[in-house]
Amino acid sequence: MANTTERRSFWGWGLAADEPTQADRDKLAGQLAERYGVEVNAGPTPTIDEIDLRPTRLTPPDSIAAFCSTDTWDRAEHTYGQAYPDRYKAFNRQFDNPPDVVAFPSSDDELAAAMDWCSEVGAVTIPFGAGSSVVEGTNVPDDRPTVTIDLRRLDQVLEIDETSRAARIQGGALGPAIEGQLRPHGFTLRHFPQSFEWSTLGGWIATRSGGHYATNHTHIDDFVESTRMLTPAGWWESRRLPGSGAGPSPDRMVIGSEGTLGIISEAWMRIQRRPSYRASAGMTFPTWEGGCEAVREIVQTKTWPANLRILDPGQAQADAGLDGTETLLIIGYESAELAQGDNIHTAVEIARGHGGLIDDEAIQVSGGDAKPTGRGGAVGAWRDAFIGIDMNTPVSLGLISDTFETAITWDQWPEFDAVVRDRMTKVLDEVCGGGRLSCRFTHVYTDGPAPYYTFVGMGSQGSELTQWNEIKQAANEVLIDAGGTVTHHHSVGRMHRPGYDRQRPDLFAEAYLAAKRAVDPQGLLNPGVLFDT
Amino acid sequence: MANTTERRSFWGWGLAADEPTQADRDKLAGQLAERYGVEVNAGPTPTIDEIDLRPTRLTPPDSIAAFCSTDTWDRAEHTYGQAYPDRYKAFNRQFDNPPDVVAFPSSDDELAAAMDWCSEVGAVTIPFGAGSSVVEGTNVPDDRPTVTIDLRRLDQVLEIDETSRAARIQGGALGPAIEGQLRPHGFTLRHFPQSFEWSTLGGWIATRSGGHYATNHTHIDDFVESTRMLTPAGWWESRRLPGSGAGPSPDRMVIGSEGTLGIISEAWMRIQRRPSYRASAGMTFPTWEGGCEAVREIVQTKTWPANLRILDPGQAQADAGLDGTETLLIIGYESAELAQGDNIHTAVEIARGHGGLIDDEAIQVSGGDAKPTGRGGAVGAWRDAFIGIDMNTPVSLGLISDTFETAITWDQWPEFDAVVRDRMTKVLDEVCGGGRLSCRFTHVYTDGPAPYYTFVGMGSQGSELTQWNEIKQAANEVLIDAGGTVTHHHSVGRMHRPGYDRQRPDLFAEAYLAAKRAVDPQGLLNPGVLFDT
């Protein structure tokens, strides 16, 4: 299947052509060696001829063979997502449990034929968008014969309803493909997760992806008008409606199903006119607590800023070059129709009441006939950092770097933060002999923030996976112990199961599993995700 | 149980003390006789000694007897909701299928004891909030022994978290009780369905009630932070979280469950500071189409007005005394923190662009230090009409008056409206020899409106139920045929089943039914609602 699109890396993030060079890696190795005072070995990146896969145990029948692959590259590429253990194992040439077959259907009929064959031969069936799961959501779960169904050929915006501001989009469309097809019509989906380039509409819906908007409509959930999903028992398709109160929402059972019920082949999505009015401010605070209180007051006034992201001093230093003592708050408003100057000034005044600092002339306002005002500053630096991350190199050099994210009500904040920091700092000390932990809010609600923690520590060569696992388990536990959710938008997958199993109501688990069995009686779809079977 | 609260009417809306007098009814009878040119007989309202109930078939054990009743009044009062057939039958002393026992638990333990007993004896179990279902959601479905569990004694706001703006509220709390307990703290839930006085938090959540806000967060769904529900298999309780992406939402399976999974005993709800800033405008349009286009443009600019309700000429005449040619649009903004003058002027300008008329001095703005500006006019008249409806008298005089509501994407509007009016006008002609049909939008989304139709026709004495049924079935059919939802916020109950069964995805029905069976294996909870069993 490799010749149908530009080949993706089989071991790392992005295209093979964009893999880091040895020079890039040597340079970072030198920096890390200096920073941590340890030897860092930038051994060569994997090549496909080094990869030895278990022979495939399935032979697709003639009826579907034309869009199925048992090629080594394809199977290796679909063995892992982008979780830390995935990247570690892939870099270290460990592909112990690859799928047997990768199917690339390019129509609903081909998709149905592939799933029918899986049901017929009892093959585990893994829905695959673009493989950027950070929770082991697309990995082969056990030693049963497995087919991964990759939706990359279902990548079209099929219909645009300009009057209702909605579009019918296929499940396998990547972020840039969606935006590219909407842009000529003046529209945008405006769903920009950090994985934007390598994640798909179907993946976003299946995992309750968190997107562009920091307030009000934060998850993809709120933009779904209807869904079309193929299950082993057939098609599950909801009616296109702007709102409904007819029983429990059929879409809300699909949203967050993480591939356990079926494969989302398309959805009608609410889209937006491309914004032309913008207003933003990057404000610093002498204290993290003051900044958080500003965020709470701003979100509770319900002017619904598109951006309301606060970075603690460590995060602000790493992402925006601040001095390591200041907290940074980025506030942004946008609209296709209305000037946003009043909104930004209101929010800035609230933030100033909590110690927030910004010069009036640094507040940026643009759009309409008015001349743009204000200058960039911290906002621009932050934006560049957000999309410019190298996902491939650090893990290959022994750095243990990962994130965990949650949500918690305001009454538990900042105590929740103190508990998390205390526990995780101790764990980093124990496991890595120290490390860094920082926090930002990715999304904010009237009743609480969604804090996102980043940790970094240096691993010991050969022990990194064990070390990572200790840290990750501690994170899972502290989030649940302290009252949060085990994930706000990265989804459950296989990695968050221990915390998730404690968090969800037991009877809900039983009820949803019964629902799954109704449409997937053999339990073939993505076992291990959400449930053991 | 009657002496524990002021007694409610056993046959009509509200308290027994508020039942219409014979003089009121004679007056309306005279008006109807004149309007329709028929004889209208205002026969006397029912008295409890006229009601003859089937003997009860269940005897509550001593352990729960103290909060259970087999009293005639209690059983009659719980036989019906407030649907047209309910009111018709109750007025006509037809109580063929009453519950055998009504339980009034006042704690979670009593609630569990009541449900356990139902499971033990295999009694059909009907959750009952305040009995204002208009879709036969609380009626006894068949001839099996039946226990109705009335939550009126679980009526407390248990906790207020002022920091997060959330409150823990019991499922049986009526609208006024909730507001009464929040008001001293400066908060409000701001959920004001037309049934506000006689509906409960648990009922709102179970039925996906549509509330105060015409845009953005329209259903109760969006205000639910967590739920606590008792099922026959035990408690289902979700974690209190401002947002989460951990698997499919457990709450969204409860929201809209209509009593088929369990009884919602309490929920953490997002609450609001009481608004102090308000801005509103009542605008007239020479055409219904122009007004609807104005609504679309206003909602798509996302300033999220709390009110954005448009009334067609017939509705505007009935509710606000306009002349029957003009369309009326009510726009309202509100906030606890920010002045809303700019928002209302923006919306008014958009509406003027579509032919909307209002004098500048009629735009009302109030709050803060500024002197209130503007005068009332059409807005005040409309508000009085909304809450002043006499639910009891018309049906007792032979008038067939009811509503149906839906939602549809903008691309189908106004063709959808034309199809509905054409079909329903013909049906009213055939069935009642004419009648009136009018429309308003109760809620509006960026991708479409939620139209709400009211119909009125004069029935033939003794045939009213058959006539109503013909009209209602036609409404169900035309909504589904034309692409809408069978209900936007009245819920499915038993009445909307024919349309609902066509509307929902078949596999979703199978999956949700399997989920129900996991927590209600005997199928005792509210059978007939959503599903046959």
Walkthrough of the structure:
Two copies of one chain form a homodimer. Chain A has 17 helices and 18 strands. Chain A is α+β, with helices and mostly antiparallel strands. Chain A has four domains: 2-150, 2-Layer Sandwich (Uridine Diphospho-n-acetylenolpyruvylglucosamine Reductase, domain 2); 157-273, Uridine Diphospho-n-acetylenolpyruvylglucosamine Reductase, domain 3 (2-Layer Sandwich), CATH 3.30.465; 277-378, Alpha-Beta Plaits (2-Layer Sandwich); 393-490, GMP Synthetase, Chain A, domain 3 (2-Layer Sandwich), CATH 3.30.300.330. In chain A, the strands form five sheets. In chain A, strands 5-6-10-8-9 form a five-stranded antiparallel beta sheet. Chain A has a four-stranded mixed beta sheet with strand order 1-2-4-3, with helices on one face. In chain A, strands 13-14-12-15 form a four-stranded antiparallel beta sheet. In chain A, strand 17 and strand 18 form a beta hairpin. The model of chain A has no long low-confidence stretch (mean pLDDT 95).
Task: Note the main attributes of this structure.
homodimer, 533 residues, alpha+beta, Uridine Diphospho-n-acetylenolpyruvylglucosamine Reductase, domain 3, Alpha-Beta Plaits, 17 helices, 18 strands, globular
Which secondary structure elements does this structure contain, and how are they paired or packed?
The structure is a homodimer of 533-residue chains.
Chain A: H1 22-36, H2 62-65, E1 68-69, H3 72-77, H4 84-91, E2 101-103, H5 108-121, E3 124-128, E4 146-150, E5 157-161, E6 166-170, H6 175-182, E7 187-188, H7 201-207, E8 224-231, E9 234-237, H8 250-254, E10 263-270, E11 272-273, E12 277-285, H9 288-300, E13 307-311, H10 313-320, E14 327-335, H11 341-352, E15 364-366, H12 378-387, H13 393-396, E16 399-405, H14 415-432, E17 436-445, E18 448-458, H15 464-481, H16 497-503, H17 506-519
Parallel strand pairs in A: 2-4, 3-4
Antiparallel strand pairs in A: 1-2, 5-6, 6-10, 7-11, 8-9, 8-10, 12-14, 12-15, 13-14, 16-18, 17-18
